[in-house]
Design goal:
2 domains, binds magnesium ion, seven-stranded parallel β-sheet, 12 helices, TIM Barrel, Enolase-like, domain 1, 381 residues, globular
Length: 381
């Protein structure tokens, strides 16, 4: 049993070192909800990846805040929590809100790893000691700036370059990049920016020998992606469409994709992420770990997850300094060229730099009945 005494919810505001543009628009700063669990004299952390706007998914930091404070947090404090893997059952009455659930569940896994005195990677069943890293490069103000950025990332040793794309920032860009670097591992991510009228246009990208085309069509679709995949030599990778193991099975069986992107927040926590990983592995579908502009806390959780055996393609687990001038935990440890390693010791994730270079508000916390507040849920907004 893990006796959780308190859940602290904290919102921080972090300016990005460089603005990041996707087909959704430009991001210059992130509001991030952090979960801090107090239990067994230990402190464990989780990070919610929901954005400020409901563009990537229908959740936002504000919906995650509300549902954590009013539903998930109290349920967790009332439950008998055996381990991280108990959380899906504890949260089962709440539909959706997967990013909010993941932040709490992942903090419980972090706690369990500390109690067991093993690393989070080990607890999750990880076997890889070296994780290959790729980078995701946002839409740039000009082609020249994109080329410069790619040159920098390749020089840093990253093993896969992923280009965010949208209509008007696609074929010509891929052509220019392929002309300069014919042999690099290159992929693209459209974040649902195309429709069926673009089928021939997308099919013409086969000439660029892309590792994958990520989520070209609707964010909630399998069927039209399966029609597109039949037309393409290039593998489709699904991201937004995959919410859980059943979605992964449907997408694989319908041949909507041949690669899966796993984001632990998008699927609701480590338990479901492992289930998606295992389902894909049994069917011979490789996976990789996608990034959501996380701080070091979320990033360390992604690295631990990426140590599972079927994460055979380079993930978006690049150095913290690519995103933040000041991260909230000690940035990624020893990085070899284009790789990273999961932590050997239990992941403590002390946010020792909270406040440095970030603005943060500690919002009301939720306490176990009798703990400090003595009155159950002590939070109010
Ligand atoms: Mg994506």
């Amino acid at each position: 049993m893990l006796n959780i005494d308190a859940i602290h919810m904290r919102e921080i505001n972090m300016p990005l070192a460089h603005p990041f543009e996707t087909s959704f628009g430009l991001t210059t700063a992130r509001r991030i909800l952090l979960i801090e669990l107090e239990a067994e004299g230990l402190t464990a952390w989780g990070e919610c990846v929901a954005g400020e706007h409901p563009y990537f998914s229908d959740e936002t930091i504000d919906t995650a805040w509300l549902i954590t404070e009013s539903e998930l947090g109290p349920s967790l404090l009332d439950a008998e929590v055996e381990r991280g893997g108990s959380c899906p059952n504890i949260f089962r009455q709440v539909r959706g809100h997967r990013m909010a659930k993941a932040a709490l569940e992942n903090a419980v896994w972090d706690l369990e790893a500390q109690v067991e005195r093993i690393s989070l990677a080990e607890l999750l069943g990880g076997t890889r000691s070296v994780i290959p890293c790729g980078v995701s490069i946002g839409i740039q103000p000009s082609q020249a700036q994109l080329m410069e950025k790619i040159a920098t990332e390749l020089a840093a040793g990253y093993q896969r370059i992923k280009l965010k794309c949208k209509p008007g920032w696609d074929t010509k860009i891929f052509e220019a990049v392929r002309n300069r670097w014919p042999d690099i591992t290159l992929s693209c991510d459209a974040n649902s920016a195309y429709r069926m009228k673009d089928l021939d246009h997308i099919a013409s990208w086969d000439q660029f020998n892309l590792l994958m085309i990520e989520q070209p069509l609707w964010y909630d679709d399998f069927y039209f992606h399966s029609m597109l995949q039949k037309r393409l030599k290039t593998d489709i990778c699904l991201d937004e469409s995959i919410r859980n193991r059943r979605d992964a099975l449907a997408a694989i069986d319908m041949e909507s994709c041949r690669i899966l992107n796993i984001k632990v927040g998008r699927v609701g926590g480590f338990s479901e992420a492992i289930a998606v990983h295992n389902a894909a592995e049994e069917r011979g579908i490789p996976v990789w770990c996608g990034g959501m502009l996380e701080t070091g806390i979320g990033r360390s959780h992604n690295i631990a997850l990426s140590s599972l055996p079927n994460f055979s393609l380079p993930g978006d687990v690049s150095a913290s300094s690519r995103y933040w001038s000041q991260d909230i935990i000690e940035p990624a440890r020893a990085r070899l060229r284009g790789t990273t390693r999961p932590h050997r010791s239990p992941d403590r994730s002390p946010p020792d730099a909270l406040g440095k270079g970030t603005s943060h508000r500690l919002k009301p916390s939720i306490y176990r009945s009798g703990y400090r507040s003595g009155s159950g849920v002590a939070s109010s907004r």
